[in-house]
Amino acid sequence: MLQRPQSLLLLLTAICMILFLATPVWHKVGVGEEAILNPYYLIHLKGSLAAVSKPVYYLAVMAVFSAGVSIFTIFQYKNRVRQMLYVALNSLIGAGLLGATVYHIQFEGTRFFAPETQGEFGIGFWAAFVALAANWVANRLIRRDEKTVRDADRMR
C-alpha cells in the first residue's frame, strides 16, 4: 500500500535529495575569499574572480539516481524483498554521496585558504544526511512488515 509509513519516508528521501541538488552543500568565507561546494562544482573565489573551479557533477548524478531509486522503490510495495533490496542499494548510494561530499570538503575545500577554518555546512549537506537516515528507517519498517507477514503465514 502506498500510505505505509515507509512510503512516506522514501518520499522524504527523494525530496531531501532534490533539496541537496538545489542548495549549497558547504561554504567558507574569508577576507576577500570564498569557497563554495554545491553538487555541481567546487569553486574558490578571490574577490569576484574564480581562482579554482573544479566540476563535481558526479555528486549531482548520485543524488538524482538516489531520488529516482527512492521514488521507484515506493511502488514496489507488493514485493517487500525487492523493496528491501532497492532500499539497501539506495543506502549505498547515499553513503557514497555523503562520503564523496565530506572528502571534497575536508581534503580540497578547506585547503584553499585558512586551513584552520572549517567553514559551514549548508542545507544540502544536512538534507543528504536526513535522506540517509529516513532511508534507513524505511528499511527497518519494511523489514518489520516482512517479519509480520512471515509470522502470520507460519500460524496458518
Automatic annotation (TrEMBL):
Keywords: Membrane, Transmembrane, Transmembrane helix
Record-given protein name: DUF4293 domain-containing protein
Recorded superkingdom: Bacteria
Native source species: Emticicia soli
TM spans (from-to): 56-77, 84-103, 123-142
